[in-house]
Amino acid sequence: MTMIMALLTGLLGLGIALATLWGALALGHRLPLPRPWRWGGVGLWLAAGSGWLWLAWQGARLGPLAAMAVQMAALLTWWRRLTPSKDLAWAEDVAHLATGEVEGERLTLHRVRHFDWQTPTEARGGWERRTYDLRRLQSVDLFVSSWGRPGIAHVLVSFGFSGEGPGEEAFVAFSVEVRRERHERFSEIGGFFKQYELAIIAADERDAVRLRSNVRGERVTLYHVTLAPEARRDLLLALVAAANDLERQPRFYHTITANCTTLMFAMMRQIIEGLPLDHRLLLSGLLPGYIHEHGGLVDGYRLCELRRLGDITERARQAHDAPDFSKRIRRGVPGWCD
């Protein structure tokens, strides 16, 4: 009996400690007060949780449990009322969300970003409307940009359209990103606590890819995705529909459940039935392995070969200002001809 009571006390203490920690982080990231007052609120929350924890270790159980339950109920009521915003002073690179419309075989994307990045935070250029012929949609590529953290990367999906003549191909890259305010800097922990909204951005490859390979110094790998023509079209239109929905109804970004990989997987599941859940969907840097395992990358190559041949980092830096940037970075990549 003594062991059972000790176990119950330990579990109660652990529950109170975890609830106290979660509540402190939630208040620290979202309590709408100036910083000194916000940290004061966090301190009061921690003091109360520590008090209930001390009483639990002293042998009291119902009192601390009831008090913590009331405290958490009040916090969760406030938490559930937090809603994502649509109109804030957004950072320049996420000032506009991608939206689009289809008329017959013509896809018009509004606000395609075409920045010329000078530094990781400064760029020239702007946003423009671009039109694409869906009958000329010929490719889907996956860009994986990593910065040294195992399993962590950013994923972009790029669609290629053939032109009227040689060298007239057009590419548009979609990126699911954190929509930050101008004064905010990204925090992975903040991404768990409704600190940011979600953004779907459409951009020129010379913007989105060069930012990562040439300006931020990240390692970028390109994988050619072998979707059937109809599936390519469906994926593109699903992305546009998701972007339109996000423009109408904003959502919070979440580091695990609503990020670049999980949203893309949800769209792919609409197109390819039976795709299983996998831990690699939570670690975006491992996504190519998942796609390769399910037959979505160029056949006849091991994953390590596709990764080595698809490393476009140096080619992107050499092609920096070239008008045929997208063509140059694809040289030697399996699935693409020089």
What would you note in describing this structure?
This protein has helices spanning 2-30, 35-57, 62-80, 205-215, 229-248, 260-271, 287-293, 303-309, 313-318, 325-329; strands at 99-103, 106-117, 123-133, 137-146, 153-161, 170-179, 197-203, 219-225. The strands form 2 sheets. Strands 7-6-5-4-8 form a 5-stranded antiparallel β-sheet, sandwiched between helices. Strands 1-2-3 form a 3-stranded antiparallel β-sheet. Helix content is 41%, strand content 21%. The termini are far apart. It is built from 10 helices and 8 strands. The relative contact order is 0.11. β2 (106-117) and β3 form a beta hairpin. α1 packs parallel to α3 (62-80). The mean pLDDT is 86. With 338 residues, the chain is an alpha+beta fold.
List the helices and strands and how they pair.
Elements lengths: L1 H29 L4 H23 L4 H19 L18 E5 L2 E12 L5 E11 L3 E10 L6 E9 L8 E10 L17 E7 L1 H11 L3 E7 L3 H20 L11 H12 L15 H7 L9 H7 L3 H6 L6 H5 L9
Antiparallel strand pairs: 1-2, 2-3, 4-5, 4-8, 5-6, 6-7
